[in-house]
Amino acid sequence: MVHNVIAVYPGTFDPITLGHEDVVRRATQLFDRVIVAVAAGHHKKAMFTLQERIEMAREAVKPFPKVEVESFSGLLRDFVVARGGKAMIRGLRAVTDFDYEFQLAGMNRSLMPDVETVFLTPSDKFQFISSTFVREIAVLGGEVDKFVSPLVQDRLAEKVRSLGRE
Fold it and tell me: How much is the pTM?
C-alpha cells in the first residue's frame, strides 16, 4: 500500500464555492495530503486578486488538516512535480465538463506520466454551481448564500460594492 500520497487540486477558485469545498472534502478521504493549487490565472480575467483567492481558499479548507493552499503560475506540471504530487484532482459537475476534462487529463498524462488524474463529483446539491455563475449572480444583486460560504458571500458583496455594481 502506498503511503503519503499527495494530490493537487488546481483551479482559479474565483471564488471558491461549496462545490469546490465538497470536492476537497472527498479528496481528503482518498489522499494523505491535498494541495489546493490556486492558479495565478493569466488566461482568465479574475474578479478577485490572487491573494484574495488564496485567503478565501485557506479559510474554506480550515476544517481539513490534511489540506494546504498554495498559488502557482506557469505550467501546472512543474508545480505538481515539484510538490511530489501523484494525483491531480478534477471536479466534474456534468457531462458537459467531461469532454474538456478528458482532453486535459490526456494532455496532463503526456506531460506527467507518473501522475494520475482523479475525477470527483460533488454532492448532488452542488453539481450545478460554478464560480462564473456565482460571480454573475452576485454582480446582478442576487443571493449566493446557497453556493458559497458566509466568508465568500461577504467578500463577494464587498467586491461588488467596490466595483460600483451594486
Answer: 0.91
